Amino acid sequence: MGKSRTKNQKKARLNALRVAQEEYSTIPHSFVFHRGQVGRNVGQLVMDVRRVMEPFTARSLKVRKSNVLKDFVSVAGPLGVTHFVVFSKTPTTVNMRLARLSKGPTMYFKVLKYTLIKDVVSSLKRHRMHQQQFTHHPLLVLNDFGMEGMQVKLMATMFQNMFPTINVHKVNLNVIKRCVLLNYDRVSQEIEFRHYSLKVVPVGMSRGVKKLMQERFPKMSRLEDISELLMKGANLSESEAEQDGEHNITELPQVFSGRGNMCSEQSAVRLTEIGPRMTLKLVKIEEGLGEGNILYHSLVSKSDEELQEMLKKKEVKLKQKEERKKQQEQNIAKKREKREENKPVEVL
């Protein structure tokens, strides 16, 4: 019996390892780094964006002055990295690049405004930031990206592919602790980047009952009877009454962590901003990884005919490349055949 259990345990471990490797390969991973001299504030912004992308990012990635983009590309392949987020700074602007490995596209953004995590948190009376929030990836919410325009659709696809997909029918709500909101303004063509902490609380309870649910004993010196603790609606705080409403109250499809959050019961979803904030504007989109045809430029407009002509030229180049590769393979095969024919025969 002992041997059979040991064999079954080994099989289970191998199976679990195989499943973990398959899941790891399907989840997008990222490198967030800077190029050139960026200063202390932009350097801290890089660390804050890494915080947002956790846990599927290289949190302790070291960048040297001598490193070039090819160094990161060569390391990214074995590690399963799918996206680059690169910051740079000029005397007048802060720029951000989003690149999809290994064939692009690459998107260039101008960072119009940004606020660091420490500044956002310091402005709050009560912040909600703890290490457990960063053990799972955030929930991505895209707002107003459904308008017409190739560049808007490409941006939406790029942002979606940077975060793991979520199956709404199978997801465990208890692992969703953060939310990333990207809001596109059609008029100014700017993107508002926000990062929130997510909390779910039951509604319809007084503050005293909530404290009892949390195993905390409320103050009862001003109460004449225990029924006031349970029934008096005035115990609801003004801040809670103002926050909760039809916009954030929902019926939970499953039990959520926290006292009182039961399945099929009304609970309020509350968001607390934890930073960083960024206001982005798309400058251009390139076809490859930092090199290739320009698919979109905010300052230069191209007609559909010009874009079709660009795509045709690209297809012709790819066909020529494939033909050259086939020709090279045929030449190598012929050389091998000649070597085999000219190889001397050993006489025993």
UniProtKB/TrEMBL annotation:
Main location: nucleus
Region (Disordered): 317-348
Domain Brix, chain residue ranges per copy: 28-291
Pfam families linked to this entry: Brix
GO biological process, one term: ribosomal large subunit assembly
Top-level taxon of origin: Eukaryota
Cell compartment(s), UniProt: Nucleus, Nucleolus
Example of a GO MF term: rRNA binding
Cited InterPro entries: Brix (IPR007109), PPAN-like (IPR045112)
Coiled coil stretches, renumbered: none
Cellular component aspect of the GO annotation: nucleolus; preribosome, large subunit precursor
Record protein name field: Peter pan homolog
Gene that encodes the chain: PPAN
